[in-house]
Amino acid sequence: MTASLKSDEAFGTAPSGNVFDANCSARHALELISGKWAMLILPALREGSMRNAELLRKIGGISQKVLTETLRDLERNGLVIREDRRTMPLHVDYRLSALGRSLSDALIVLDRWAERNFPALDAARERYDQAHQTVNGR
Hints:
Blueprint: E1 5-6, E2 16-17, H1 25-34, H2 36-45, E3 50-51, H3 52-58, H4 64-76, E4 80-84, E5 92-96, H5 98-136
Antiparallel strand pairs: 1-2, 3-5, 4-5
Helix pairs in contact: 2-5
């Protein structure tokens, strides 16, 4: 077993990663999902299969280029399945894989937390900025 994997044989669990180990693939998994676009695309696809244009409309502020790159990366890592209908005009659907669905469940919890707590975060940021403007004489 490598230094980046551990298992808890006492509990009969499968080997798991260590996100604190720079050489562990679990760190790559965190990097993949921690980007704001992946964190928005995956829960958006939780509702079902979507075409590219639908995702663009649903996810405000994302460019076509960034959406395409992010979808490609999510597909490469087994989180999203791309289905080309082989029609003209081009019809491609994106949907979550089983792995992507399991991750989406976790991300939706973060989405709801952000939606509930953004006022407290905004207020804290404002207090901090005001306190530091006074201290710095701005």
